[in-house]
Amino acid sequence: MLVTLGSALYILRKLEGEGAVASVKILVRSVVMTLIGASVLALYQINNGLFDPLRYSVSVIILALICLALNGVEHYWKSHRAAQKKDRIGWQAIHVGLEKDGLLIQGLDVWNEDWRQTDAPSLELPHPQHTQQRHTYQIYEIGPVDRPVRFAAGELSNGVWGFYIPTV
């Protein structure tokens, strides 16, 4: 159990930036799994006349490390997948057209508004009508600063623009 706690404290330090709650969950799950596994192992060894305190202690240490590793891998996998989903906000194609064609997004005339480029990284999305073609889109905001309307726009060819809006 001391090995489990020591390893858990190491993981707690590594995961500090990801939140203490996730780290504590890993620790608690690992300890519970180790206790269950150690109990089953002890019962098996006692019932079969194989109980040796040294071998049992080594087995529990190995079991604790395996439980901690499995829980750490599971946490990493879940947080990695969540980060991927977060980075991949859904975008819906809404328009392909010429400059000054009267496109409205949430009631605002896109071409008569000042476009404010956001700090968000550019996107690589398919052409709205030719999905096999990939293009780079910048994310912009228009309208009032306190209630911005966000969209992604990219010039697909000379004067022809593609527009996407985020999906929630």
What class, by secondary structure content? Answer: alpha+beta
The stretches of 5 or more residues where confidence is low (pLDDT under 50) are none
Which H/E pattern describes the elements? Answer: HHHEEEEEEEE
Shape: rod-shaped
Helix content: 40-55%
Count every beta strand, where a strand is a DSSP E run of 2 or more residues: 8
Kindly estimate the percentage of residues that lie in beta strands according to DSSP: 25-35%
What is the CA-based Rg, rounded?
A: 27 Å
Number of H- or I-type helical stretches: 3
The number of domains: 2
* Mean pLDDT value: 81
Main sheet?
6 strands, antiparallel
Distance between the termini: 45 Å
What does this entry look like structurally?
The protein has three helices and eight strands, in the order αααββββββββ. The protein has 168 residues and is an alpha+beta fold. The protein has two domains: 86 residues; 76 residues. The strands form two sheets. Strands 1, 4, 5, 6, 7 and 8 form a six-stranded antiparallel beta sheet that branches. Strands 2-3 form a two-stranded antiparallel sheet. α1 runs antiparallel to α2, α1 runs parallel beside α3 and α2 runs antiparallel to α3.
In summary, what is this structure?
With 168 residues, the chain is of the alpha+beta class. The chain has three helices and eight strands; from the N terminus they run αααββββββββ. Helix 1 runs antiparallel to helix 2.
